[in-house]
Design a protein that fits this description.
alpha+beta, 3 strands
Length: 73
């Protein structure tokens, strides 16, 4: 699922956030880890969490992604 998410990343979030956040990996509990460059960006990106998760789950091979964890660099 990481490859599909990375390939579509700039379509999943607004451009200004997509440039400053990056999907890292899907861990064993079906949680996507996303790294943001600062706490401010992380806070702003979390406003899109529900729609982002819905878009990710529509990607091929990503149906199992159940949640998102946000971390800062």
């Amino acid at each position: 699922p990481e490859d599909a998410i990375i390939a579509s990343w700039h379509k999943l979030l607004p451009a200004k956030l997509a440039k400053r956040c990056a999907p890292l990996r899907v861990v064993e509990d079906s949680r996507l880890i996303i790294q943001c460059e600062s706490a401010v960006i992380k806070t702003e990106a979390r406003f899109f969490e529900k729609s982002l998760l819905e878009k990710i789950r529509q990607l091929p091979g990503c149906r199992q992604v159940k949640s998102i964890s946000w971390i800062t660099a």
